[in-house]
């Protein structure tokens, strides 16, 4: 393009020289005509440049998927998760045609893996019930932010309220991190606890158990919600009373189940899926949804900011917010005990119709996670 402009300029100079030799009176007119010719040539050249730039932008838009063309997949979408690993890959492939590879681990294992890969992340999407850990990931630029999937419009009022301001994740469901459960061969409806505060009653001394907030992914949201609702000082006073009265802290919820089944404890704050599993298996267990709301653990989906499968990752998160998807997840065994995050999904029939959840503020839970876990570890060691 520059060569064409240069050639036009040389021609104009030659013509100007020839005209100057032939007539001084016509010099001004000729020079003006030549300037106009050169200007027209330069304008045409610029138009061609602009057209070329437009073509390049159009090509770039096509490559980035802005034209609506389906993105090509060269390798499976890598999803780190802690539940639904047996079904979600097939569900997504059937709906979209795209392959998914899952890496399964509990909350602590998944977050440790992400941290170990910090300089070279392998994952595309993380989908676990560790909302506060995931929010903390967004603070160093690890997550895609300020993006909203189309199906976010389907979120219930409760779940929409859980989306952080930076939109680094979207909730796909919330389950009770701790419902009240008791052995009904030890207590009855009149003597069993009805609220979380009831657990501090001395008559339950040495009989209460729960999972460790520093180990079990659902147990931290339980502790965080109690701390958030009572304030840090009030929450510590509450748990201090429980510890002084013989609170038993087990690594994870399955160990709490074992302690209940054996009679080692008779009351517990237990993850709802474990609680319903005990009831359905015939254990003498009764579930009580706390009147003030059961502390909730929210499963969220977030996208790696540096993924090279951005469009497919966004499709996956949008897929998780589809009512049909969540209905299928609800229908999937014990993992399906949760409150869906979108409208139009029926919960499990045996899940309490009046189940009420309470979730700690995401910023509070994220900023205080290390301190709360450390405090629990110190108290458990006494």
Q: Can you give a write-up of this model?
A:
With 382 residues, the protein is of the alpha/beta class. It folds into two domains: 77-174 and 296-352, Periplasmic binding protein-like II (D-Maltodextrin-Binding Protein, domain 2), CATH 3.40.190.10; 179-295 and 373-381, Periplasmic binding protein-like II (D-Maltodextrin-Binding Protein, domain 2, 3-Layer(aba) Sandwich). Helix content is 45%, strand content 14%. It contains 13 helices and twelve strands. It has helices at 2-22, 27-64, 88-96, 107-116, 131-137, 157-160, 219-244, 253-262, 272-280, 310-320, 323-330, 362-367, 369-381; strands spanning 77-81, 100-104, 125-128, 170-176, 179-183, 208-211, 248-250, 267-270, 285-288, 294-303, 339-340, 357-358. Helix 1 (2-22) packs antiparallel against helix 2 (27-64). The relative contact order is 0.15. The model is unreliable at 1-67 (pLDDT under 50).
For the record, what is the CATH homologous superfamily label of the largest domain? Periplasmic binding protein-like II
CATH C-level of the largest domain? Alpha Beta
Number of alpha- plus pi-helical segments: 13
Low-confidence stretches are 1-67
The CATH architecture term of the largest domain is 3-Layer(aba) Sandwich
| Secondary-structure-derived class | alpha/beta
How much strand? 5-15%
Which whole number gives the mean pLDDT?
Answer: 86
The outline comes out as globular
Q: Tell me about the biggest sheet?
A: 7 strands, mixed
Number of domains: 2
In total, the number of strands is 12
The SSE order reads: HHEHEHEHHEEEHEHEHEEHHEEHH
Determine the fraction of residues in helical runs and give it as a percent range. Answer: 40-55%
């Amino acid at each position: 393009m520059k060569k064409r402009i240069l050639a036009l300029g040389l021609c104009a100079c030659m013509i100007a020289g020839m005209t100057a030799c032939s007539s001084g009176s016509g010099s001004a007119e000729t020079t003006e005509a030549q300037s106009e010719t050169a200007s027209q040539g330069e304008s045409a050249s610029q138009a061609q440049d602009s057209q070329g730039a437009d073509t390049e932008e159009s090509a770039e838009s096509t490559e980035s998927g802005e034209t609506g063309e389906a993105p090509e997949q060269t390798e499976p979408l890598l999803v780190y998760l802690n539940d639904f690993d047996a079904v979600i890959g097939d569900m997504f492939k059937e709906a979209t045609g795209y392959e998914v590879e899952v890496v399964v681990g509990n909350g602590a294992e998944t977050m440790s893996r992400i941290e170990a890969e910090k300089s070279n992340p392998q994952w595309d999407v993380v989908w676990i019930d560790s909302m506060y850990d995931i929010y903390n990931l967004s603070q160093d630029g690890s997550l895609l932010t300020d993006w909203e999937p189309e199906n976010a419009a389907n979120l219930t009022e409760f779940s929409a309220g859980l989306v952080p301001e930076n939109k680094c994740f979207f909730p796909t469901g919330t389950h009770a991190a701790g419902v009240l459960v008791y052995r009904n061969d030890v207590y009855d409806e009149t003597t069993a606890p009805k609220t979380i505060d009831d657990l501090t009653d001395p008559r339950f001394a040495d009989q209460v158990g729960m999972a460790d907030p520093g180990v079990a992914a659902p147990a931290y949201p339980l502790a965080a919600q109690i701390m958030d609702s009572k304030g840090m000082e009030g929450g510590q006073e509450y748990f201090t009373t429980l510890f002084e009265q013989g609170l038993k802290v087990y690594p994870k919820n399955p160990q709490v189940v074992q302690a209940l089944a054996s009679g080692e404890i008779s009351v517990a704050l237990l993850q709802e899926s474990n609680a319903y599993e005990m009831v359905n298996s015939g254990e003498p267990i009764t579930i009580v949804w706390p009147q003030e709301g059961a502390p909730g653990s929210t499963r969220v989906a977030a996208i790696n900011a540096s993924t090279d499968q951005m469009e497919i990752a966004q499709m996956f998160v949008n897929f998780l917010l589809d009512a049909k998807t969540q209905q299928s997840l609800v229908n999937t065994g014990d993992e399906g005990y949760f409150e869906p995050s979108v409208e139009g999904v029926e919960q499990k029939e045996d899940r309490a119709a009046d189940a009420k959840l309470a979730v700690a503020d995401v910023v509070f839970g994220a900023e205080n996670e290390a301190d709360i876990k450390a405090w629990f570890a110190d108290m458990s060691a006494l």
